[in-house]
Amino acid sequence: MKSQKLISDQFDPNNRVVVYHGDCLRLLDQMPDESVQLVVTSPPYNLGKEYEKRLRIDKYVEQQAEVIRQCVRVLSPGGSICWQVGNYVDKGEIFPLDTLLFPVFRNLGMHLRNRIIWHFEHGLHCTNRYSGRYETVNWFTKSDKFVFNLDPVRVPQKYPGKKHFKGPKAGQYSGNPLGKNPGDVWAIPNVKSNHVEKTEHPCQYPVELVERLVLSLSNEGDTVFDPFLGVGSSAIAAIRHNRKAVGSELMTKYVAIARERIVGELAGTLKTRPMGRPVYDPADAGNKLTVRPWATSSNVVQLRLVEQPKKRYRIK
Ligand SMILES: C[S@@+](CC[C@H](N)C(=O)[O-])C[C@H]1O[C@@H](n2cnc3c(N)ncnc32)[C@H](O)[C@@H]1O
After folding, report:
1. Where are the extended beta strands (E) located within 148-275?
2. Any ligand 1 atom below 6 A from CB of 201
3. Residues 151-184: pLDDT tens digits?
4. Which residue in 2, 210, 272, 273 is deepest, having the highest Cβ count within 10 Å?
């Protein structure tokens, strides 16, 4: 089949795409030292999902440490690891996985460059605590000399027309014409039911989240590795930007979906949410469902003022 030729199922440094069906540690056994520029992944969170066995939290950290140790080994000296995690939850108590895993990375000599807050609007509605609406991307480098390409990931300034008002540059535009640094808080929709990328995987991350990391932390032709590949989102972002993609996934059904999506990406037919598209604002879009059916026009105004004090509001 065509997809078999396009996608190698064992590590091959010359192949554009490798999807290994099995344990990431077995794929890592095949990978030479310093062969990868960027590791980007979202591991299991020890929540007892269908693809993981819930462990005592110290055992989970030990298991993660073994994978992280091997990822550091295969990472090139100028390379980066982005470990995207949320919370482990036990009896309503949260344990942020980035805080538990930080010592593992530090003990392996890795340097934390950013702890990016990935903010999204959708998820479980909690009743005994605030609903979780962010996770983190923990960006570590192997050394102090690392790839960081800012220009390809710049975003539009809030006031692009702003000018220097005094000094030798007075009258000139003060911002970079390519845009500004996106900062370390990223508002990107998570992959829930209506998202164009949604598959049957319960915990996909969006391709656009990985695209920004791929563009800034690697160069064309480099290898991007995801040990916990799921349905292939990291590989898709890598391929789209002319990097080589390597990944491993345990579950047969996710391997099949990953392969299918990768074939679509290579053919240019895969649909994803485009990078840089503003987050949908139902009130600004005039969505009628934003008006409370049970509210009178006077308390609609009041409720909106309390919840969104800076926003324009409309009485319908
Ligand atoms: C949080 S999901 C990653 C989803 C992925 N980011 C995506 O967008 O599809 C973690 C994945 O790791 C896989 N997995 C768990 N343990 C693994 C292991 N030891 N080796 C390879 N894959 C594993 C799970 O089956 C699951 O699909």
Report:
1. 185-187, 223-226, 244-249
2. yes
3. 999 999 999 899 999 999 999 999 999 999 999 9
4. 210
- Looking at ligand 1, which residue's alpha carbon is closest to its atom 18? 23
Ligand 1 pocket test, candidate residues 118, 188, 250, most atoms within 8 A of CB: 250
- Note the pTM of the prediction, 2 decimals: 0.91
What pLDDT sits at residue 316?
A: 44
Tally the domains of the chain: 1
In a domain, 298, yes or no: no
Q: Are 20 and 247 in contact (CB under 8 A)?
A: yes
- For the chain, the straight-line distance linking the first and the last C-alpha, in angstroms and rounded, comes to 57
For 37-66, what is each residue's pLDDT tens digit? 999 999 999 988 888 889 899 999 999 999
What number of residues does the chain have?
316
Contact (Cβ atoms closer than 8 angstroms) between residue 261 and residue 288: no
Spatial distance between the Cα atoms of 292 and 316, rounded to a whole number of angstroms: 10
* 238, part of any domain: yes
Q: Is the pLDDT of residue 114 over 90?
A: yes
CB 203 within 8 A of CB 42: yes
| CATH number, position 75 | 3.40.50.150
